[in-house]
Amino acid sequence: MFDLLPSRSGRILVGGHRGHSIEGHENTRPALLRAKELGASLCEIDLRMTRDGRLVVFHDDILDNASTGRGLISQMDYAGITGLKTKNRNGMAAGGQPIELFEDILAYSRDLGLGLIVEIKDKFEGTSYLEEVIRLLSQANMIERVLISSFDYVVLRDIKRLAPDIRTMGINYHRLVDPASTARSAAMDVMNTDYPQFMPDLAESLHAAGVCVSHYVPPPQHFALRRAYGFDYLDLLRSHMQAGLVDMLICDDVAWIVEFTKACGLSPARLPFAD
Q: How does pLDDT run across 77-120, given as a tens digit for each residue?
């Protein structure tokens, strides 16, 4: 298994959000490949389940906004999705890609030497959904290369009960009163806090509990206007990183986040199974 606390040795895991999604279609092979080429340690992808129980790699519950199809994925059989192509939300001229099965993306990522953060998006009852996720991870020999993530901390607790070797990541939009207790309650290995809620005390609390600290940041253009008004969050982030408070950075723009990491005097962590 790869080290989830690389900040102890001046390194940071660098992740692509839905792959290197800033230039092309998210959750696709080209987005994953480009992220790997640019230096990503791992990539985040999203899971949805079709009506006939197939897991596909797609963010939204509906097809309308990011594909050539229409409708709720949960109300469609996989056969109705196979001919569809992804559609770029940013309006960029990039060729559409197939909506892939989870097992195919697992095999592709394994062959690339790329770790994955697999976000479970659906709401469901019982454990059959999680059992299918575990089965496919085991079949692909990817359990040691994957983090299972969710905003639903009950999901993280339950999958850990079913498969204790799986490592999990809670996604957090808030400044928590007791981050370490929250992480322990769901048996999290990683907690990700999205911009702008990251604070040093949150990271210190998690590190004291042995929990990896992940931080999602928007692409650099998000910060440009704010910097012109006199607020530079990237200066704050640089100081947090140099203080060893961040183990993982996630961004849509892998090229930028890799260069930002290096400009902070830190090295993107290399995973043991990477080529």
A: 999 999 999 998 776 656 789 999 999 999 999 999 999 999 99
Asked if 51 and 71 touch (Cβ cutoff 8 Å), the reply is no
Q: Which residues contact 214 (CB under 8 A, 6 or more apart)?
A: 13, 15, 169, 190, 191, 192, 193, 246, 247, 248, 249, 250
Q: Identify whether the C-beta of residue 158 lies closer than 8 Å to the C-beta of residue 187.
A: no
Under DSSP, is residue 93 helix (H, G, I), strand (E, B) or coil?
coil
d(C-alpha 253, C-alpha 272), whole Å: 23
Per-residue pLDDT, 250: 98
Give the pLDDT confidence of 110-124 residue by residue, as tens digits.
Answer: 999 999 999 999 999
Yes or no: say if 114 and 32 are a contact pair by the CB < 8 Å rule. Answer: yes
Q: How far is residue 119's CA from residue 14's CA, in Å, rounded to a whole number?
A: 17
Q: Which residues of the chain have pLDDT under 70?
A: 91-94
- Domain chopping of the chain, boundaries: 6-268
User: Which two three-digit tokens encode residue 21?
Assistant: 């999604």
DSSP assignments along 12-73, one per residue = EEEEEETSSTTSS-TTSHHHHHHHHHHT-SEEEEEEEE-TTS-EEE-SSSBSTTTBS--SBG
Please state the CATH superfamily assignment of the domain spanning residues 6-268 in this structure: Phosphatidylinositol (PI) phosphodiesterase (3.20.20.190)
